[in-house]
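for the recovery benchmark. tokens below, seq after
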């Protein structure tokens, strides 16, 4: 008898070197390299002048590196709640990010950006050579990217906006002192104060909004469902005992009594299915008692919360997300829609989503209550995650595109202009780098946001994203200095407080990372700027 065990499948070289997802690694690595080569060739044709070739090559590398790290930290932070709640797998999150992030960057990303000359560092107040401006922006991209890479490796979600601001501050001061054009007086310290304020204001507002929203969801939906589920389990037990008791009673009957009782039950089964059924028409004790048990089950009204509150929540949430897309995500498309038209579009979206979720909830009435709750909130969370991805692609990618486009424009014209054109090729390469960064280095940040600070459920994940969107919109309208990253972290903590499961130990290093983001990026960028100045003159 041959007892030889089957041989284990031989692992390929790619599997041994890159792990089980080696095909995905290879695919995204190849796409990124191919896009980088294509964009490099395009950039060399876009920018004329042989003396700028090395600077141009470094600019392409630094800019794509920055977008790559934004994907690994900022996009991973946005999708952390969805992956942590098991609404999306890592690969599904990647697909959603690829479609909506790149679409947001290409379709709604601005075609023209203001050259970074005033703001937190006032470069307009000094006489700045075009080449020195290029060094500042290149160093800012590199410094911010290196800090983001370190924070991502540590699993710390930080603000990419604060990172690039710190990079510009450090590089500008270093070049200003080196050339004698300026120094610390170039920094708008009142705006630094606003950034410091955002370290407290952003997570506080996000936490309060999520705490209030999740407390209401937990009370009116989750706790209600738990009580209803407990009652249904009691009724299920009672139903099983009822069957067992009548089976034993039936076995004790004589043969003639069993035949008579069986006939009664057969007639009752027909009676129950009649449209004008009357309880008094039932003959057997079995069906009389079973009818009373089923009346208890109907009285529980287990899916009441899912049919009432969830569609309403989905409708209001969709209106908020639609507002965010109309006023932030699509603002660069210059849509000629007046206020009334915008309001009507938002109202139509809300009504359509409310009705769609109500129909889905109604179809879940005969299904397990816990699974129905998971399914409904999972659908809604995918919707909010996709909307966030589009909005992020159209807005926050500017942290890489802005300085990148400014450098290309200066290298092309050898002059600093008030605005810089953002070519579609630039938004596309940044979008590809963004998604690649999410896949290759985003897992640590996803783990922190999705399960490190508190455990996530589709209901809590949806709450965090919706609360964060509400705070971002409200803060934008009020002109408050906030960070979307910090707001989302605060929202996750607010949910943890409601569940009494917030990981404050992990929050300490995250808060420390927020504080040192600006000086860390500034320090690295200052060193990079001085190096570029020394090498290229």
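predicted aa per position
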């Amino acid at each position: 008898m041959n007892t030889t065990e089957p041989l284990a499948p031989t692992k390929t070289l790619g599997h041994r070197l890159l792990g089980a997802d080696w095909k995905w690694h290879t695919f995204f690595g190849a796409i990124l390299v191919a896009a980088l080569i294509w964009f490099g060739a395009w950039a060399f044709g876009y920018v004329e002048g042989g003396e700028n070739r090395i600077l141009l090559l470094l600019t392409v590398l630094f800019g794509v590196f920055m977008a790559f790290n934004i994907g690994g930290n900022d996009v991973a932070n946005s999708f952390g709640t969805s992956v942590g709640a098991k609404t999306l797998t890592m690969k599904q999150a990647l697909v959603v990010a690829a479609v909506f992030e790149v679409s947001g960057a290409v379709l709604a990303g601005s075609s023209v950006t203001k050259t970074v000359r005033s703001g937190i560092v006032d470069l307009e107040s000094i006489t700045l050579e075009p080449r020195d401006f290029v060094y500042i922006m290149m160093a800012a991209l590199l410094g911010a990217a290196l800090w983001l890479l370190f924070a991502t490796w540590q699993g710390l979600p930080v603000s990419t906006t604060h990172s690039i601001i710190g990079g510009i501050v450090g590089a500008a001061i270093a070049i200003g002192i080196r050339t004698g054009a300026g120094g610390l007086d170039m920094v708008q310290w009142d705006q630094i104060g606003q950034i410091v304020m955002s370290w407290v204001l952003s997570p506080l507002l996000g936490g309060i909004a999520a705490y209030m929203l999740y407390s209401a969801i937990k009370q009116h939906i989750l706790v209600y469902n738990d009580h209803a589920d407990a009652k249904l389990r009691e009724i299920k037990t009672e139903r099983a005992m009822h069957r067992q008791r009548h089976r034993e009673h039936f076995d004790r009957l004589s043969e003639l009594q069993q035949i008579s009782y069986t006939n009664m039950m057969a007639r009752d089964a027909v009676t129950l299915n009649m449209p004008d059924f009357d309880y008094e028409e039932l003959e057997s004790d079995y069906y009389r008692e079973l009818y009373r048990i089923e009346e208890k089950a109907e009285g529980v009204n287990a899916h009441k919360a899912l049919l009432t509150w969830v569609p309403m929540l989905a409708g209001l949430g969709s209106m908020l997300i639609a507002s965010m897309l109309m006023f932030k995500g699509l603002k660069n498309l210059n849509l000629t829609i007046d206020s009334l038209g915008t309001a009507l579009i938002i109202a139509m979206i809300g009504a359509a989503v409310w009705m769609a979720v109500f129909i889905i909830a109604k179809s879940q009435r005969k299904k397990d209550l816990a699974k129905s709750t998971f399914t409904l909130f999972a659908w809604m969370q995918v919707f909010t995650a996709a909307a966030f991805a589009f909005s992020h692609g159209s807005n926050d990618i500017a942290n890489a595109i802005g300085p990148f486009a400014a450098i290309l424009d200066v290298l092309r014209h050898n002059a600093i202009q008030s605005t810089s054109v953002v070519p579609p090729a630039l938004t596309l390469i940044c979008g590809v780098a963004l998604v690649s960064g999410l896949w290759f280095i985003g897992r640590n940040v996803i783990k922190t946001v999705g399960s490190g600070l508190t455990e996530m459920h589709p209901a809590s994940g949806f709450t965090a994203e919706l609360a964060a969107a509400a705070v971002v919109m409200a803060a934008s309208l009020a002109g408050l200095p906030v960070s979307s990253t910090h707001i989302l972290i605060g929202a996750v903590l607010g949910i943890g407080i409601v569940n009494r499961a917030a990981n404050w130990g992990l929050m300490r290093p995250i808060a420390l990372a927020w504080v040192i983001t600006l000086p860390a990026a500034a320090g690295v960028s200052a060193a990079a700027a001085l190096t570029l100045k020394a090498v290229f003159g």
